[in-house]
Amino acid sequence: MEKALEPVELCTEPYSFSNLSDSLKSLSNCDQNESTASLFNTLVQAIGELQLNRSTPITDVKIGNVPAETVLINCLKQLRLKVTNKHSCDYVLENAAKFLPVLDTLVHYILTEENATALYTKYLLHVLINWLSCSSEQENSERSILLQKYISSNKLQAFFCNAYGCFHEVSALLYNIHRSNCSQIEDIDLIESILLHDVHPNTSNEYTGFLVELLMSQNYVWASYSQLKHQARLALQDSLRDNFIADKPMETLPEECLKCLCHAFKTSIDVVFQVSKDNDLSAIREVALVLENIGHAASVEKFLHILQKDKDLLVNAGVLLINVHRLGQSPDHIFTPLKKLSTIQDDESLRSPITGFKADLIRLVGNLCWKNRTMQDLAREGELIPVLLDSCNIDAKNPCILFHMFLQDCKALLVL
């Protein structure tokens, strides 16, 4: 049996339901603290009615003579504005043990699939977002910790993961909670939902993008990479690539990210040799994305120094390059060069994981050898220079080979 909420007891009484609109209009004349507590007491009464009528839809419940829906909409609408006021915001913070359980109970009743599109659902999320983000970073962090203590994270996550509704608002709330207290997101289901929602046209928004950036800056998602479903891994690699090619790429990637990329590349290159024109090329899409992202990372000086410590990375890239080049000598293989650039102008060909694959291998080898005697000697011992020289030809699948990439990589092998 649910425990009934006690009145907040920081004011004399809740708002009068007999003339609710007049009460709300007169708020500006009330003491800020008392009016805030009065709103919460009104919500406590509303919750009491909801608990008594839990099997009845909220739209059919009445509080006095006023529909519960009207009470919730008006109170939450007023409260979302109140918590943008610094004084009211601090007042709620000082009395968090009394106020936040009220909001948590509302989260329990309101954040459901049935209420997903209701206006009071959106207003409840607005209240939480505004209270969480109205002050300095330090104060917001304190509020975020309290929200995680009092508000059911499972309910919020389920509402987000299932994309029931108010998706922009619940995305903003989750982002502000995790950003404010710098907490790691360590729930695999939530991580996968964030990644997949961000690439879906119906759910992607700026806050899912911010959440993905937050994920990429944390160790947990990379340490748990192998636990993610295939589509979530692809979404993560796509987002990482977009980050690298952005005008202002994020440079807060943890070293765990580089370790993850290198491990994923070195343990999955056999997949490349198992594909042919008759196979589904999506099997190597993840390997191609990982390779491209390692190449991008190796173009950033502070990441390059880390990658150049991994001799096995160059060995694996070299072996793969030699074999891809050998397979390309066959007359009808997926890695056989195309001599006419016009043959690969359609969108499907440009999106193929084969397109640019060899060029990315050459770029990675060149970057790893850049001003690094150990890597240069390793490349010479592996007889990579003849392969690089033989790769200097027209290939519509790898147009960059013919231009600056080849020259840069040969220079990298010869110059300290």
From TrEMBL:
<dbReference type="GO" id="GO:0005829">
    <property type="term" value="C:cytosol"/>
</dbReference>
<dbReference type="GO" id="GO:0031175">
    <property type="term" value="P:neuron projection development"/>
</dbReference>
<dbReference type="InterPro" id="IPR019156">
    <property type="entry name" value="Ataxin-10_domain"/>
</dbReference>
<feature type="domain" description="Ataxin-10">
    <location>
        <begin position="357"/>
        <end position="401"/>
    </location>
</feature>
<dbReference type="GO" id="GO:0051301">
    <property type="term" value="P:cell division"/>
</dbReference>
<dbReference type="InterPro" id="IPR051374">
    <property type="entry name" value="Ataxin-10/CTR86_families"/>
</dbReference>
<keyword id="KW-0131">Cell cycle</keyword>
<protein>
    <recommendedName>
        <fullName>Ataxin-10 domain-containing protein</fullName>
    </recommendedName>
</protein>
<dbReference type="Pfam" id="PF09759">
    <property type="entry name" value="Atx10homo_assoc"/>
</dbReference>
<keyword id="KW-0132">Cell division</keyword>
